[in-house]
Amino acid sequence: MKKLLLLLSTPFVCAQLSLFVITHPSCPVCQKWHNEIEETYLEESLTRDLPSLQSFDLSVKEDRDFVSDKIGLVFYIPMFVLMDGDTKLGSFDGYTDFDEFFTALDELCHDAPRDGFEPPTK
Question: How confident is the model at residue 122 (pLDDT cuts 50, 70, 90)?
Fold first, then answer.
């Protein structure tokens, strides 16, 4: 939690990027992310500089083909990929909780060859 508070004090901007979220309906961890983060993320993105969210369901052929073409192989889900247009800037896998998700996203945005973002608070 202290790390999240420290990150909140660092000004970042990441809204011009996209966050691809790759999931599957049979994945319990993916469902946990959808239940705990997705709605909050979409609400927060209206007032904060968060990357735009684009979800891809690997059970849908068109999504699977798009992910294969743009991202490549997916070994673990959920997978979160920071994109600048068609360029993959970085990614992380898995989900445990709110704080760890936004800490990982902050690090990903901060390490991207652009500015990062200000993560929301609980």
Answer: low
Per residue in 53-95, pLDDT (tens digit) is 999 999 999 999 999 999 999 999 999 999 988 899 999 999 9
| Burial profile 34-70: b = 16 or more Cβ within 10 angstroms, e = fewer | beebeeebeebbeeebbbeeeebebeeeebbeebeee
Cα(58)–Cα(83) distance, integer angstroms: 18
Q: Which residues contact 92 (CB under 8 A, 6 or more apart)?
A: 79, 80, 104, 105, 108
Domains annotated on the chain, with CATH: 2-111 (3.40.30.10)
Contacts for 24 with CB less than 8 Å, ≥ 6 apart:
30, 57, 58, 59, 77
